[in-house]
Amino acid sequence: MFNWLNELFTIIDNHKSAKRELQVCDTCEALKHQLSIVNEEKRQLLDRLLAKPEPESTGNVEFKPILPHKRTEQAWRVRQQMLEREDRAAARILRDKEPATSVDDLEKELNIVETEREKNAI
Questions:
Q1: Quick one: how far is CA 24 from the chain centroid?
Q2: What is the percentage of the chain residues whose pLDDT exceeds 70?
Q3: Could you give the CA distance from residue 45 to residue 66 in angstroms, rounded to a whole number?
Q4: Spatial distance between the Cα atoms of 5 and 11, rounded to a whole number of angstroms
Q5: pTM of model > 0.70
Q6: How far apart are CA 80 and CA 8, in angstroms?
Q7: Alpha-carbon Rg of the chain, whole angstroms?
């Protein structure tokens, strides 16, 4: 009976000694190292996110006016002058085309149109 008990203790001792002699592979060491790096980065990010923001100083800020670019401004001036010339030409054509009509002439035309409509309606 004690023989099997002795064998059991021998097996347990062999297992413990094998466990102590167990060597860790290089891949496991590399993974442990990478995991520690990632955990450190996470900790730094959390610390930065949870930290109170520093107040921004607005004492010495100078605001400079935004000036339009010279090319853009020149292009607009040229276009504006071109549009003004076209408008003047169109106004001149309209002025020369039709003589000024009086209100009496327009009323006469409207009365003629009204009488024609009344004739057609009947």
A1: 50
A2: 76
A3: 38
A4: 10
A5: no
A6: 104
A7: 49
